[in-house]
Design brief:
The complex is a heterodimer of chains A (about 110) and B (about 110).
Chain A lengths: L2 E3 L4 E5 L4 E3 L2 E3 L5 E7 L6 E6 L5 E4 L2 E4 L9 E3 L8 E8 L7 E3 L3 E6 L1
Chain B lengths: L3 E4 L2 E4 L5 E7 L6 E7 L3 E10 L2 E4 L7 E6 L2 E6 L8 E10 L2 E6 L3 E5 L1
Classes of the chains: A mainly beta (about 110), B mainly beta (about 110).
Chain lengths: ~110, ~110
Amino acid sequence: GDSVTQMQGQVTLSEDDFLFINCTYSTTWYPTLFWYVQYPGEGPQLLLKVTTANNKGISRGFEATYDKRTTSFHLQKASVQESDSAVYYCVLGDGGSNAKLTFGKGTKLSVKS
Amino acid sequence: DMKVTQMPRYLIKRMGENVLLECGQDMSHETMYWYRQDPGLGLQLIYISYDVDSNSEGDIPKGYRVSRKKREHFSLILDSAKTNQTSVYFCAFLQGKGNSDYTFGSGTRLLVI
């Protein structure tokens, strides 16, 4: 079945540090890839998505490139702020309709001021 | 703004009691979901509903059932709750019409004692 792997359970940075969150996926089809972000007490919300391999998604200073060769979709941000503290989920959509999403286990980002 | 309303936000039940979690949406979106979220596990899909009375098991349906009699409402039912069903439950809808984005509610925090 489909799976998404996020190896980093927790990342702690200082403001203005560079962020890199690792994500790899496994599927037998051609998925859409997403990053969702979840703030305390809220549900996940879409951060960015990429539907086509080798394309990059950019939102609010975050970016991720859909790399079909390495089956990766790593999340990066050049300079994090305290307000970026949240849980980040790498998510795989099931191809055409994206009626089913498969979530990674999430990476909790804590940014110290 | 498209919105998902979950009731109640917090719930404490005794083992063996029946539990009803309710979810509403305001735009007649067809596809809706129930997920549970546990620390270190991310979000796991319990049930998908494609429309009224058209429901499908997700990855972890055991111990749960759902009801969708109106497009705007999707309920999750725990018959005889167990302590291992203590979790945060999220409802979501697929925006559809070519948009593969999900909108999540704020969650119901269920404690079974």
